[in-house]
Hints:
globular, 12-stranded mixed beta sheet, alpha+beta, Aminopeptidase
Amino acid sequence: xxxxxxxxxxxxxDVAAVVRLLRAHELADHGRVTADWNEIVPFVWRNPxxxxxxxxxxxxxxxxxxxxxxxxxxxxxxxxxxxxxVASPPADRRxxxxxxxxxxxxxxxxxxxxxxxxxxxxxxxMAHRKIVLQRGFRRVRSSWTMHREIDTDEPTEGPPNxxxxxxxxxxxxxxxxxxxDQEAFADHFGFAPETFDVWRQRxxxxxxxxxxWLLALEGDxxxxxxxxxxxxEVAQVAALxxxxxxxxxxxxxxxxxxxxxxxxxxxxxxxxxWVDAENETGAVGLYERVGMRAIVVDDTYQLxxx
Length: 306
């Protein structure tokens, strides 16, 4: 890197700076903010496979953070594969922070014995894309940010026959929700199983608001769920899943329509979510049927290390 720039280990004290960098990077590429980074960054840093001092790196200029990189374990063994991302707004790239951090991520993944490393690149960030391609990464997946405007006249529909909707606050079955979550996402790209204790810690230790979770019950069994995030610049569906046996009954559609109406009543005018563009459970079609459209496309690249 150029003189005047220095790198150091990340720490919990950097969370606010990383949120700022991610927001600025997204605004530069997407032209808008699509998620609540104040929610996402602490969630990622609670991942037991991420240790800030060893797995996170900050680049500073004049003692101000201008870029961040993190590498994250995606499986219990920590080797197959690791995930990574860089927050590097284009306005502060003159010092060479971006290639430096990509090389640091590769070296850190090798130190951990990873067989492969995945890395997120925003679709319009050609400089970032060029750097990862030069290092041998290849594109393996694309993800969409889907969007829909909402208003107070949102149509709602009741749950399908035999299903009832409650919040997790009303039906505090965390173990049942954990089992539904692990089953619903088991076939998704990049899914990594979690133990119940880890799953619970990441979702509830920093945010105890069980009303964010809307559950679909058959009897007392959780067969579907939706988690909403409404504290940021845009309302977001953070998680939506239906257990395999109950798919095709309209549970996901009803959960979404009910949530859209609640968000609109709360004063929100739009909603987003992230989805794997090649999802094999029919998620993209579901979101399109409720009026959502892709507004951003980003890519995941993978580098074989072994």
